[in-house]
Specification:
Radius of gyration: 33 Å
CATH topology of the largest domain: Rossmann fold
Helix content: 40-55%
CATH superfamily of the largest domain: Resolvase, N-terminal catalytic domain
Number of domains: 4
Strand content: 15-25%
Number of helices: 15
Strand order of the largest sheet: 2-1-3-4-5
Largest sheet: 5 strands, mixed
Number of strands: 16
Distance between the termini: 76 Å
CATH architecture of the largest domain: 3-Layer(aba) Sandwich
Shape: extended
Amino acid sequence: MNSKVRTTHLERRAVVYLRQSTPTQVEFHRESTERQYALADRALTLGWDKSQIEVLDSDLGKSGQTTTGREDFHQLMAAVGLGEVGAVLALEASRFSRSQADWHKLLDICALTDTLVIDHDGIYDPNDFNDRVILGFKGTWSHTELHGMRLRLQGAKLNKAKKGELRCSPPTGYVYDPEGKLVLDPDEGVVAAIQLAFQQFRALGTAFKVMRYFCVNQIPFPRRRWRPGDIGTLHWGPANLSRITALLHNPTYTGTYVYGRRRSFNVIEGGQITKVKTQLLPQEEWKVVIHNAHEAYISWEEYLSNCERLRQNSPISLSDGCPGTPREGFALLQGLVICGKCGRRMSPRYHGTGGCRAAYECSQARKQDGSMGVCWTVAGAAIDTAVAEQVLEAFTSEQLDISLAVLSELENQAFEIDKTWQLRLERARYDCAFADFDAVKGINGFISKG
């Protein structure tokens, strides 16, 4: 093994890379941290001078699933790419990365710059075929190990949820008793506020009117927080539209234990995972549904009726900068107009007989504090006309000719593709007929010989 360490390697730095996935592991799994620091001593025994050994430990407590936020890993890759490093040392492949793509990228750069990879098992030269195979297997095994751990943890979590025993942060109006069962909040004011919200939705029919009822009558709305350092504390504040809507959409208030209502997915921008978004799943895709699991505020039938009414009330989606799907109406810029005062999206409003006049109105502030006025409103006719003129002017005669030429070319390509398939079909029919002819000919020959 030591014969792989040549003078050209010893003339460059040896970099020891340390990483553990979470701060908890760093705090409680200290043996692993000590073993990683001990790799510096191994570099000494292999021939590197102490002044040439660099330890990178700023990535302790950071996940290896991605390189985002791992400054030391980027520093390591840059130094290797510049040919400044003779060897990189880590306890195992998973310390460098849990992603096969990042692992093989590191191996490729090490091969180009003749940099050794050293772990607790041995010394590997990425330019040596056998060593490269072993390193590739180590990266694959690290990725597989992570996948296996995730499956086991998720399986155990789902199994516990199927028995209704998996505890999650309860919605406002519920708490866990000493035995771990979900019960109504012991604060009668909290229970009364939740019951009042459902009662007003039955009478008023929209979440916005329920929110307005609480705000106009200055009725505070409760909220229990379950975040670290603020577990179970009760806060009272003004009702807003999002809290009322979440209340009406939550099946827990029907006495039903539900698990798996949401699905998370990564948002990739610029080749990196920038954030994780959550998507609500349709009811038929919920993983666990156990009715009559605890005391209810409303019935399951009323919950389904509330969801259907909310769906019918739903306007264009104005969240996350998405214009949403336009509803009925002739306004040209539905969901696209931005308020010049507050920067929120404006929604169309129709006036006159049969809704013949359109206007764009910014009323997003009302959804937050129930205020009576609107931020800004403007007639839509002049805006729609100006936009239509600008769009039509953008299409010059030359651009239209080019568009028609492209369309003609696409039609020709489609014709050629269809012609190719027709020829293949004709060939297949010919082969089938020829095969049938040979079969009949063979049978006749066999009969004549008989």
